[in-house]
Write a structure and sequence with these properties.
Blueprint lengths: L2 H6 L1 E12 L11 H4 L2 H17 L3 H5 L2 H23 L8 H12 L10 H25 L26 H6 L3 H26 L1 H4 L6 E7 L2 E6 L8 E8 L2 E12 L9 E10 L1 H22 L1
Helix pairs in contact: 3-9, 5-7, 5-9, 7-9
């Protein structure tokens, strides 16, 4: 099919579609960090980091190895922080040297262990495992992103990590100045802040991530745009982010409403047409291949 025919080739298909208004300076499927974490939490996290930095300078605990143990946990937690920040900024980090380096560092970090069955050791192992569980969820999100911009989350958020499930009096001991208690409480508070942030992030993207429940539309689809019937009457010039699920493949584009039918259908829907303002050449070509295949299949069925 030559380029001219490709540009005008249209075909009606029933496909899953996700539409979202483009409201954030042409960023698609984007939630700002301010929506996920409050200003007072920023200050609390900064205080936690400053306190940890000071505690990690304690000479006695440097010599006995406690600082190295907790610094390892903090490094793992900082990897979570870096991944979350990158996602929120809409950055594709999966192919960067920095990502590979941080991944290697994370892989050599070891869970705390001891011959004793103390509650503190069980707590530290639980803390370490919880951070690992978050990483095991975040890494596929980062590496499985679509077009370097669209991140999907498929797991429900667990309750935040609780010290009281392991040891009951650590906050009191921390207030009394106990070094070990202060470090553990500080790390747990820091983890909880980012767990809540991650949970809000997943809530914000729940409808996008739930691809099995995307509405199915009858779409008149082409390489340059599409049309479908919508209950909401849009205005010409409205901009949207759109994703199509063509069988098992996702197509991502930014589109602009170019026409709206004046008269609604009997079901109260308006035929609404869009042109693609931004779509990758690969996705445009994928649409044409998909439509060509569907057209041929229909011809075969019509024989």
């Amino acid at each position: 099919m030559n380029n001219e025919k490709r540009a005008y080739f249209r075909f009606d298909v029933s496909i899953s579609v996700y539409l979202e208004p483009s409201l954030t300076q042409q960023k698609c499927f984007h939630v700002s960090k301010e929506q996920l974490i409050k200003s007072h939490e920023y200050h609390e996290i900064a205080d936690d980091n400053a306190l940890l930095k000071a505690l990690f300078k304690d000479e006695v605990h440097i010599e006995n190895g406690a600082v190295a143990l907790f610094d390892g946990i903090n490094q793992k937690l900082e990897f979570v922080v870096w991944l979350l920040d990158s996602i929120v900024q809409g950055e594709d980090i999966s192919l960067t040297d920095e990502y590979r380096q941080k991944l290697l560092v994370n892989q050599i970090l070891i869970m705390p262990s001891s011959d004793s069955n103390s509650k503190i050791m069980a707590l530290l192992q639980g803390l370490y495992r919880r951070i690992d569980e978050i990483l095991l969820e975040l890494l596929p999100v980062v590496e499985g992103k679509l077009h370097g911009k669209v991140f999907m989350y498929h797991q429900a958020s667990p309750p935040v990590f609780k010290l009281s499930n392991y040891v009951g009096n650590l906050p009191t001991l921390a207030e009394q100045g106990n070094w070990l208690a202060k470090v553990i409480v500080c790390l747990t508070d820091k983890l909880n802040h980012y767990e809540r942030m991650f949970s809000k992030l997943k809530d914000a993207y729940q409808s996008l991530s739930d691809t099995q429940h995307w509405p199915i539309y009858s779409v008149n689809l082409a390489e340059a745009g599409f049309a479908l019937f919508l209950k909401d009457k849009l205005a010409v010039g409205d901009e949207f982010c759109v994703m199509f699920l063509l069988e098992e493949d996702f197509i991502f584009a930014q589109a602009e409403c170019v026409s709206v039918g004046a008269q609604p259908t009997a079901q109260g829907k308006h035929r609404t047409a869009f042109k693609f303002n931004k779509i990758s050449p690969e996705d445009a070509a994928h649409i044409v291949r998909y439509l060509t295949r569907k057209s041929l299949e229909q011809r075969e069925l019509g024989r």
